[in-house]
Amino acid sequence: MSRTSRLHVTFTQCRSSSGLSQEKLGALLSKPTWSVRSLLPPSNDSTNTTPQESSAPTTPEITSKQLHHLLRLSALPAPQDEAEEARMLQTLSSQLHFVRSIQSIDTTGVEPLRSLRDESERGDKERTLGMAEMQDALDQEEIVGNHHKRIRRRPRRIQDEGIKNAEDCDVLGSAKRKVGRFFVVEGAPREE
Amino acid sequence: MTKSEPVRSLLFQSLSSRPNTLFSRPICHSCCRKLAGRSALYARGGGISFPTRTLQTQALLEEVVPFRKQLKDEAKRKRAALSGNGAKKKSTDKELISNWELTVGIELHAELNTAKKLFSSAATSISDEPNSHVALFDAAFPGSQPHFQKETLLPALRAAIALNCKIQRRSTFDRKHYFYQDQPAGYQITQYYEPFAKDGHITLYTHDGIDPADAPSITIPIKQIQMEQDTAKTLYQPPSTYLLDFNRVSHPLIEIISMPAIHHPATAAAYVRKIQSILKSVDAATAGMEVGGLRADVNVSIRRRKDQHGEDERAGHSYSGFKGLGQRTEIKNLSSLRAVSDAIAIERSRQIAVLESGGTIEGETRGFTLGSSETRKLRSKEGEIDYRYMPDPDIAPVVIGEDLVQHLRDTLPALPDDVMDSLVKDGVSMKDAKTLLSLEDGDRLDYYYDVVHELTIIFEIDGKKPPKKMGRIVANWVIHELGALLTTTESNFTPDLVPASSLALILEPLLHKQITNDIARFLFSRNLHWAHSREPIPSVPEIIDAEGLRLQSLSEAVYEQIAKPLLDENPKMVKAIKEKGQTGKIMWFVGQMMRGSDEGKQGKLEAKRAEEVVRRLIGVEGGKER
């Protein structure tokens, strides 16, 4: 089945409240009205031009020095020749154009989303760690002393299932180099 | 000083009339004074420091100087006096330092006392077989996810409460990116934007060892405390190979960041020492600096003192509201108290030298090894790291319930300062209070309280009030007398060695001045002998009565009868005391009385009364209250 006819089927199953006929809806939805390309700098070979042009600010030049600094920070290899460097700078420039377009949106009063979680009040309440949630951990402690009372964590149970499961992996199994139970790596030579 | 003293039986010593070999060695007057009145029970070297086995910080708390060290110090002073140049250099150093004000901020990393790691269920460990406690996430295996272990909150919260911080209800974790072989993920998970505790403080006093310029007390504000992961242990094999052990990766750490409010190296060391002891007392971090459980990074800057040269235009840096600071350098990974104070002093000298000669301080990271005479550059400004902090999207925010915080606050163990305050109120000396707190992780202190408790009961039964100095005497016995007994019998302390009730029964007549110190010691050592021999232990009062040990307070006349001949036989010494003020020689007379006379040998003389009588007969003013 083609995509449009699938959509067609879906919409015949829902109630249509907009008053438009199914054919008109189908026609409306078949053409994209926006593409992420609008956030990229206009390319020289205009193949897929979109109706809407971005109004993003122009991006400043990135210097070769900046590029090399960023590559060093990210432990990425430096470009092998001029051509590769030029390509990297071009790509980076497009990416920055995209980012600036996003940044141009006004987000005053909006809390940034840190992760895909329930960050509402209710979510916070659910994940609150209070006495009930910590009782298990508190039971792992004892009080020593008759007068000078001190808290001591009870010695770890040797057969703790949770610990055993977590540690049950062959960490050294895929190590390229090892000596006994140690991983071996080459680092920067040290002057002592 | 020979260490190969023949071991003498305690009973024999207390009753023998052999000369006290301790006094036949040349020792200084202050040692003589302190040892006078003790019998030959303590014929071990001339040093006064009592070996305490499980003490970690004893060396630093030591105020009493062993005799050997005193001799060395004397020799050092003589040599310094001879070399005039050395003295001159010291005075110019002092001048330079007085022109500049030092500012120090300290970042402490403490390993939390938990069973499991911060983001995985693998177990924490100190020195287990390498790579035996590593979960997939710890080794940064692709696709592995962090699982926040909520038990790690308990020690973290206790530490923050003990340091007077405000606990933040909501805190989040962030990634701090940098590449290094001890960091498998390429980033460390820390709390950069929203730490779990802020705005704390700690107050340091003279007895904590702060610089005299900060006396009597100084309060250091704490900016924040955050939770973060530890890194792997690396073993360096020259020239460029590293062996990695990931057991320590993701071990929970708290980083305690102080405000730049410390101005002297000694105060910096005192700050670190005190935080270590507070963390230990609330069971939050129990591994000390010497095993790597506590590490310090210090930030050092200097600026000209305002009153001397006006505002320093170079001192335009600020940190968290503290303005007018000079450019700082960071010295990383200091792992002992000595290293902390030495590194700061040495860095201060280096910065002074640079600025005095017209140079500028670079904001760089430096390293220091204990024993070296300078800090060394680790990273230049070009090699500066951009951590690119970002919230970790894999980890949910931590929301802490108010009921939990309140419960931890209510059940927080007593902090060292509060314990010492109450001990000092009982009459215990500050030094003894500190010692009690540290011996056997506080077990000795618990025993002290047991003894005091038993004594209080005995006094109540007798209908008498416990004497005011009870705390002092009990502490003395629990630390020094029991300590000596432990050494001679080569045992470790347990509360059953000399049960608190037995010690209380021995001390009660002593406190009533019905028996002398010597008799009490005899009973004390006898008690241990009986415990080992499993004979039925007769009660202490029975022994005292049966063997006629009860002190009949001898009259002044008896004391004078013993003292006068001694004074007559040694006119030169009397002259030295009277005219040259050599009051130490008084104790020599006391010693002669205590061990030379019949009454003395029977333990019927009290050293204090003997001293008073000697002083009176010679015509010298009273001595210090002992």
Automatic annotation (TrEMBL), chain A:
One of its GO terms (biological process) is glutaminyl-tRNAGln biosynthesis via transamidation. GO terms for cellular component: glutamyl-tRNA(Gln) amidotransferase complex; mitochondrion. Residues 59-113 form the Glutamyl-tRNA amidotransferase complex subunit Gta3 domain. It comes from the Eukaryota. InterPro entries: Asp/Glu-ADT_sf_sub_c, GatC, Gta3_dom. Residues 36-61 are annotated as: Disordered. SUPFAM superfamilies: Glu-tRNAGln amidotransferase C subunit (SSF141000). It holds the Pfam family Gta3. PANTHER family: GLUTAMYL-TRNA(GLN) AMIDOTRANSFERASE SUBUNIT C, MITOCHONDRIAL. This is Glutamyl-tRNA amidotransferase complex subunit Gta3 domain-containing protein. It comes from Rhizodiscina lignyota.
TrEMBL record, chain B:
Its main location: mitochondrion. It is found in: Mitochondrion. InterPro entries: Asn/Gln-tRNA_amidoTrfase_suB/E, Asn/Gln-tRNA_Trfase_suB/E_cat, Asn/Gln_amidotransferase, GatB, GatB_Yqey_C_2, Gln-tRNA_amidoTrfase_suB_CS, Gln_synth/guanido_kin_cat_dom. It is an enzyme of class 6 (ligase). Its EC number is 6.3.5.-. GO terms for molecular function: ATP binding; glutaminyl-tRNA synthase (glutamine-hydrolyzing) activity. Allows the formation of correctly charged Gln-tRNA(Gln) through the transamidation of misacylated Glu-tRNA(Gln) in the mitochondria. The reaction takes place in the presence of glutamine and ATP through an activated gamma-phospho-Glu-tRNA(Gln). Belongs to the GatB/GatE family. GatB subfamily. This is Glutamyl-tRNA(Gln) amidotransferase subunit B, mitochondrial. It comes from Rhizodiscina lignyota. The lineage of its organism: Eukaryota, Fungi, Dikarya, Ascomycota, Pezizomycotina.
